[in-house]
Amino acid sequence: MSKVKFHIRKGDTVKITAGNDKGKTGKVLEVDTAKYRAVVEGANMVTKHVKPSATNPEGGIQQTEAGIHLSNLMVIDPSSGDASRVGRKKNADGKLQRYSKKSGEFITNG
Predict the structure, then answer these.
(1) To which H or E segment does residue 13 belong?
(2) Which end of the chain, N or C, is less surrounded by CB atoms within 10 Å?
(3) What is the pLDDT of residues 31-63, one digit of tens each?
(4) 3-state secondary structure of 88
(5) Among 97, 68, 100, which residue's Cα sits nearest to residue 81?
(6) Which pTM was predicted?
(7) Closest listed residue to residue 37, CA positions, set 63, 4, 82, 6
(8) Sheet holding 13-16, edge to edge
(9) What one-character-per-residue DSSP string does 32-64 give?
């Protein structure tokens, strides 16, 4: 079985293309490779009921980010600031690196 390559990584700035938060942009906090989902900062907020514990004696209701399917996210092009598809090509060192198909620039994580 071959290893799946993802077009989105932790630290990327992405645009949401579908769902209730369509059009919003944010930074990827984590990627769940098993479920093909990513958590984007400030997007897809859900309320969770939290039981009281030693660290949180009050408990209560908290707002937190939920995962968004990777197919609903596009990486922001580093030069233009628009959403762009992602490809892979060799850089000067001969290593495969992600690049923006819109501008042709390499995508640096962060």
Answers:
(1) strand 13-16
(2) N
(3) 999 999 999 999 999 999 999 999 889 989 999
(4) strand
(5) 100
(6) 0.83
(7) 6
(8) 67-69, 37-40, 25-32, 13-16, 73-76, 83-84
(9) ETTTTEEEETTSSEEEEEE---SS-SS-EEEEE
